[in-house]
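Weekly modeling sync, notes
Attendees: S.R. (lead), two postdocs, one rotation student

Agenda item 3: backlog of single-chain predictions. S.R. asked that every request posted to the team notebook include the full sequence so nobody has to chase files. The rotation student volunteered to paste the first one in as an example of the format we agreed on. Action items at the bottom.

Example entry:
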Amino acid sequence: MSTIESNLKNQPIVLISVLSQPVTTPPPSVLISTASSLTPNTSSPAIFHDDKPIEKYYKKNKQILFEFDQIVKDIRFQLNEQLKCLEQRIETQLSILSEVQEYFRRRSDVEFDYAKNLDNLHKQIGQRHRAQKARRETWIFQSIYKLWDTIVQDTRTHVKYHTIMSDICGKYMYDKFNEIAEDTRRMFMKCKSVGLASHEDIYKVLNELKSTMKTYHQYQSESKQAEQKLSNILQQIAKIKSAKKQKTMEKRVEKRQMKYTETKVKAFKARNDYLMTIESVNAALQKYCSDDVPDLIDCMNFGFHTSIAKCVQMYLSAQENIKRGRQITIETLNRAIADLDTIVDKQKYLEYYSSIFTIPKRIKFEPHKGDEVSTVNAQVLIRDEMQSRFIQMQNRLASLKTENDEIFKTIEATEQSLMENITTKNSDVSDLFKDLNLPQNNSKNARKEIEDYYVEKFKQYTLSSNLISRLQARHDIMQKALGATPPAGAAEDNNLISRPIKPKQIGRAPILGRPRLFGGKLLDYIQVTQQYIPLIISSCVSAINRIGLHNQGIFRVPGAQVDINQFKDAFEKGEDPLVNITGREMNSVAGVLKLYFRELKEPLFARDMFDSFISCISKLNSIINLNYSTKLT
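Predicted structure, as returned to the notebook:
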């Protein structure tokens, strides 16, 4: 119940007194008095008396009527003020509704302008991209291009969202608010007519009360007069001594007695009607102020708040749809961010410019006239000197490789420090939405110092690695020419020189979380899981080796896509779904293995190792042919 309803309900009801109290008695302060008994006193069979003694001073009829008219006037004023108050309440509600409507109208303009600006931004970027298409032909080889394209497409999506939001706020909601205001005014006028009808009923019973009050006082006056006349005759009889006169007076007494009885009965009935009408009027006023007024307010407001709630829910529904669209955008941007990969970018770029970045053709030996020897050999005259030179080179190589390894460790530590300096620039701006404090920028000088040190070490590592490659080539060809094992003292250094080189990568980005198996990098997965052979390879190869070698069309007949997807999900979770595999599912096993190799970010056989693989295959074929020829002979 609203505050106005409570005030109306708790307003004191205008009081109506019996108007028969003596002048010295103040009017009652609550409702209409019902102090007079509804049952007359009939203790005397001849003359009817009330229990209360007759007082000498009473209000005059004119005064009673004047006071009653004043009460009716106060009631009429109060009822009219109630309707005015309710009308003011409706106007207040409609004023607030108008402000809400005005807000959404202006919000529509803002949304439209925002959508228009976003659309202009999207068009300008698109036109600029098309104008510079020839200069941007290599953009597709950069993973950041996908991120840029995602952001641009997201702008176009937001144009659509904010255009729809503008239509909702400026058209649908604006019209709906007008409809609500119209319905509210119409409902108020109808309910006001109901209130006026209730007022007419109250005025009607008040008029009825006035009529019964007049009748009551009239009959009371007649009763008092008849009683007075009867009393006078009785006093006269007491003074008469003659029997004849007494007999005559008795007839007059009987006549007066009948008149008195008749007027007294009318007075009793009039008083009862008067008191019952008073109770009826008080009940009507009580019912109207306690029940009818709150019900009238409820009827006026019927559907008002529900209509507003439904209208604003249109706005919430639009926001929810935009929220879902933004969530899709966030997921797309997260995928684009996750796909930022400098290694893949480098590989695609080198493949595109393979003619520029390919290894130049090997320089061939150009012999002097008559010199047909094209290999390094250790002839007797220079063998000792070559042997000594070989040992010196071997020692220098060992020292350089050790020094190079230390430099690379320093580079890794510096990379970590530099990456920490980069990542400390917090990308989470949640606090900015709480206290509007801008995040503090890290010192640029510290990063510049780390960068300078990092580049200097990278320079040392690059030059040292290049020198090692040159010396290693000389070392290998001299060792082949000498054709003898190195001295015992140099065995340890030789192991150091000939040990397999661990793959090294400059600028490796930190691995966050568990890397993806499908569509990820093999080296990253091995580094995090410490599985030098991923489970999917070992499990699939083992299953095919045990069961699938006799399956016709293995690796050629496609497997069931449902089974392949199930195997893929299981391997991605680190589980082995091929423990109880059967021969019927071998094609699916081969299919998931092919899918894994196909989705690797980096090919299993790197491009820069292609020549080495071809050389190994050529040597293997030569050995096979030699063994075959030996068997024939």
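Discussion: group reviewed the output briefly. The longest helix spans residues 143-239.
Action items: rotation student to repeat for the remaining queue; S.R. to check formatting next week.
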